[in-house]
Automatic annotation (TrEMBL):
Its main location: membrane. It catalyses: K(+)(in) = K(+)(out). Keywords: Ion channel, Ion transport, Membrane, Potassium, Potassium channel, Potassium transport, Transmembrane, Transmembrane helix, Transport. This is DUF1211 domain-containing protein. The chain crosses the membrane at residues 16-35, 55-74, 86-106, 118-138, 159-180. Belongs to the TMEM175 family. InterPro entries: TMEM175-like (IPR010617). One of its GO terms (cellular component) is membrane. It comes from Hyphomicrobium album. One of its GO terms (molecular function) is proton channel activity. Pfam families: TMEM175. It is a multi-pass membrane protein. The keyword Oxidoreductase does not apply.
Amino acid sequence: MSLAKQTHETYGSERLVAFTDAVMAVAITLLVLDLKLPEGIRDDELYNAVPNLSHALWCYALSFVVIGVLWMVHHNQFHSIPRVDGVMLWLNLFFLMSVALIPFVTSVLSDHATPLPTMVYAAVLMANCTMTAAMWWYASHTPGLMSPDVPAQQRRAGLITPLIVAGVFAASIGVAYWAGSSAGQWTWLLAAAAGPIGDRLSRL
């Protein structure tokens, strides 16, 4: 067997990070396209039309923050992952595929109040978090990808926290189905506790 086949081929993560930044920048920009007033609206109708955008503005703000948080998590992850390989490239592509769906599911959530849009939105965010956990797990278990000075507690927290968030979104799908879209969306607030819980569990 040749030396090339024996060696695990890796690459610097700079291009992966740059490509990810570009895709997420496009996704976060596309969110604003749903914020539009009806065509031909008169000046005296603005007082009624603008408040009618409140739900669309809420969906825009929610998804803007969601993509922003995903970008920050990805940035923090790859601060500790200086090298990538072919598997990591594919995992990151699947992560970006789920991110690119956020503008679409935001549009559906903005236009419809039935439980299904909330369930679909939650499913996409569950996929985001699952892929985030998968990338971190793979990097921490593949020699040469993650920096060796990353402590074991941080390695565990980086896996546990996104899985907890994914669990919250998975649970909200059932809540939305049985109790309605509003109840499902309120469930998402539980994701705020994922960081402290993940940090505590990683210390056990």
